[in-house]
Automatic annotation (TrEMBL):
Top-level taxon in the UniProt lineage: Bacteria
The protein, known as: Xaa-Pro aminopeptidase
Pfam families: Creatinase_N, Creatinase_N_2, Peptidase_M24, Peptidase_M24_C
Sequence ranges assigned to domain Creatinase N-terminal in this UniProt record: 21-148
Any one GO molecular function term: metal ion binding
Assigned keywords, A-Z: Aminopeptidase, Hydrolase, Manganese, Metal-binding, Protease
Amino acid sequence: MRQTFEVTGGPALGQSNLPLLRGQMKAQNLDAYYIPHEDAYQNEYLPSAFDRLTWATGFTGSAGAAMILMNSAVLFVDGRYTLQAAKQVDSKLFTRESLDKLGPFNWLAKQKLHGKRLGVDLELVSQNAFEQLADAASLAGVEIVPVETNPIDAAWHDQPPEPKELVVPHDVVYAGETHASKLKRVGASLLDIAADAVIITSPASLAWLFNIRGGDVKCSPLPLGRAIVYATGNADLFLHPVKVNDALTTHLSDVTVMPMSQLEGRIAKLKGKTVSLDPALASAWFFKTVTEAGAKIAVQADPSALPRAIKNDVEISGSKQAHLRDGAAITRFLRWLDSEEVQSGKINEIQAAQRLEQHREELQGLKDLSFETISGAGSNGAHCHYRVNEATVQVLEKNSLYLVDSGGQYLDGTTDITRTVAIGEPTQEMKERYTTVLKGHIALARLRFPAGTTGSAIDAIARQPMWALGLDYEHGTGHGVGSYLGVHEGPQRISKMPNFTALEPGMIVSNEPGYYKENEYGIRIENLQYVTQPRDIVGGDIPMMEFEALTLAPLCSRLIERGMLTPDEWIWVDRYHQRVLKELTPLLSGEDLEWLKQACKDL
């Protein structure tokens, strides 16, 4: 299996490791220490060697931060992880605060710490985050101290080694554009800001730009490394030598591949040059090192991020094929969920996750899961990013809901789908809440919008049916998705949080409104969709873009309260199911196909 269900995190980690961390803080003459979730590459999903926040606190979520003082500590988590953090973190050692509403920097600004020393590892915080930290420290009267040795690394005696998996070429058959062409495009973009070079710090950008993939990050085919791309289109790529073999050398014959140990020396040679850095992605260490090298910094968004987000025709075609195969696996799983074996209430969350993984594994070309399966039965489904383990596992009990959020990594695309199904007979409330979530999903799926529209401008459309009933959900409505890359990809997103990146044709985003009733159940309906080319509307003045669904799998009709849907919403559900049936029929047979025909019957 590609995932395990061992217990990770938990209060014991904070209980044992917080004293060790404070011992190192004392040795370095620090009164406080800031722990971001991110590693030096600003990864969301971390290699175990870099999972410092979990080591210090016991919290295993994919977003968070902590402030450690000598006599107190604060953990910051967002709304997705409120319930999880309450279980994983010792409340006697840590107070918990909101990551998105207060955050560590606003919290710090309100403290009175005059004359105290706050340690920070410049390699782990982006320049933007460091500047916010510095402003907050000034208000609190605390001195920021860049640490030479990370005190967690010094205290973490059994810290795993940094991953150094082989880096492999990603065939242009899947990429749709050669790396030489991409390098020229990025190099040419530097001329617009009169920059001589850009330092690429994001592993996802590295993978896209050089048409390479790696295995350093679980569930994401990312190679950890760095690159310097010049306005000429030439490039230096920095990787640990053990990651490089003859196949990669041949693939990158036009690129200078160098050991990671030579990165700082190469930056020193940029003296007198203008160097582009993205303050949202590049760590404060890069800004400091480039400045000390005597180079001028041009602040600019990663020039490969937007081109990476706008998928070309080959990538969209590949994503469609990946979702088609993935949809067949999901459908076989949904048929099993509807069987007497499961509906009897004897199967647990781990068995369900394993069954789904088995169906994906039977497909040809599965490279990995795109994230660890969220398999939430009953009250566990109310944890929107719940990770099942041997300590929390529950049975899919009769007369309850089961939420499953999962995805696969394939050479031609990355998938992410959530379905909520009824086990036994759902209550009237469950059906009404499910249908309300579905109405929000449909509203976004049917949307037409003009050029220049951002995700934050349309987020409320998916929430409006819930808001009308006094309901809401504490996560974004949609995130970008890579092409055999990260399942969470920017710069576009659909959420309440301000986002200034306009949605453009070829961008892939999720559509995933939800509802979560603490201690009872969770509901989420998620499809991936891509932005279409703008087209003229009969009688209209300006062309409009739309979303086209990539995800193909039936919805749970038993949970749809038909009387709550408008005729247009009925039509959308029926047309979606007709498409699912038509496209998946060639991939299914026997009981699976017969079940699909029933699941896709018109409302």
